[in-house]
């Protein structure tokens, strides 16, 4: 039997979650958040000035925004459900949600936890029969999953602070 790369990755991820008692993390992305705020995914677009796809996130209570550079495939992964489009065949994020559902694991929220060295970090929070699970994720994948699962996206205060500082540094150059 031939297993696709993504299916193999999904099975490996689930196996890791089960083997580690619900924690699968990398790169120190599990730092405790200071204070988190729910955000709305406002848009994804191709920034012609830097020739890179970006996603815009906006805090719900004060409308403070920041942008993250993401990959082109990730832009499509976010744009499709954000625009209410249902592809004729499941995309990778749809496949993961189907797999999680069959394993009786539910995505409850995603949290963008940090920005270090121009790299964003995020955590997926799941609820399952054995308790809560937390898994390290790229923020773009976390956002794509959250939109599909209709769960909230949160961002740590540190990310807003660091993203604002990084934007100011780039504008000064």
Brief synopsis:
This protein is α+β, with helices and mostly antiparallel strands and 173 residues long. It has one domain (5-172): Bifunctional nuclease domain (Roll). The protein is 37% helix and 35% strand.
Q: Which features characterize this protein?
A:
single chain, 173 residues, alpha+beta, Bifunctional nuclease domain, eight-stranded mixed β-sheet, globular
Describe this structure in words.
The longest helix is centred in the last third of the chain and has 16 residues, at 157-172. Helix content is 37%, strand content 35%. The chain has helices at residues 5-19, 72-82, 92-102, 139-149, 157-172; strands at residues 23-24, 36-47, 52-59, 65-69, 105-116, 119-128, 131-137, 153-156. Strand 6 and strand 7 form a beta hairpin. It has a single domain (5-172), classed as Bifunctional nuclease domain, CATH 3.10.690. The protein has an 8-stranded mixed β-sheet with strand order 1-7-6-5-8-2-3-4. The chain has 173 residues and is α+β, with helices and mostly antiparallel strands.
Which residue ranges are poorly predicted, with pLDDT under 50 across at least 5 consecutive positions?
A: 23-29, 167-173
CATH class: Alpha Beta
Order of helices and strands: HEEEEHHEEEHEH
What general outline do the C-alpha atoms trace? Answer: globular
Task: Briefly note the structural class of the backbone.
Answer: alpha+beta
| Helix fraction by DSSP (H/I, runs of at least 4) | 25-40%
User: What's the average pLDDT?
Assistant: 83
Distance between the termini: 53 Å
CATH architecture: Roll
Largest sheet descriptor: 8 strands, mixed
The number of distinct helices, counting runs of at least 4 residues, comes to 5
Within the largest sheet, what's the order of strands?
A: 1-7-6-5-8-2-3-4
């Amino acid at each position: 039997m031939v297993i696709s790369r993504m299916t193999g990755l999904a099975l490996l991820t689930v196996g890791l979650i089960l083997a580690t008692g619900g924690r699968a993390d990398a790169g120190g992305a599990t730092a405790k958040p200071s204070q988190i705020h729910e955000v709305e995914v406002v848009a994804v677009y191709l920034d012609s000035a830097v020739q890179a796809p970006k996603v815009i996130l906006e805090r719900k209570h004060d409308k403070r925004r920041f942008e993250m550079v993401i990959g082109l495939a990730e832009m499509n992964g976010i744009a499709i459900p954000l625009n209410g489009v249902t592809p004729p065949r499941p995309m990778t994020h749809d496949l993961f949600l189907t797999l999680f559902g069959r394993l009786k694991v539910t995505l409850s929220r995603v949290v963008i936890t940090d920005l270090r060295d121009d790299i964003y970090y995020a955590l997926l929070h799941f609820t399952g029969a054995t308790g809560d699970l937390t898994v390290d994720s790229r923020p773009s994948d976390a956002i794509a999953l959250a939109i599909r699962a209709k769960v909230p996206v949160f961002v740590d205060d540190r990310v807003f602070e660091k993203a604002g500082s990084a934007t100011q540094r780039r504008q000064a150059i």
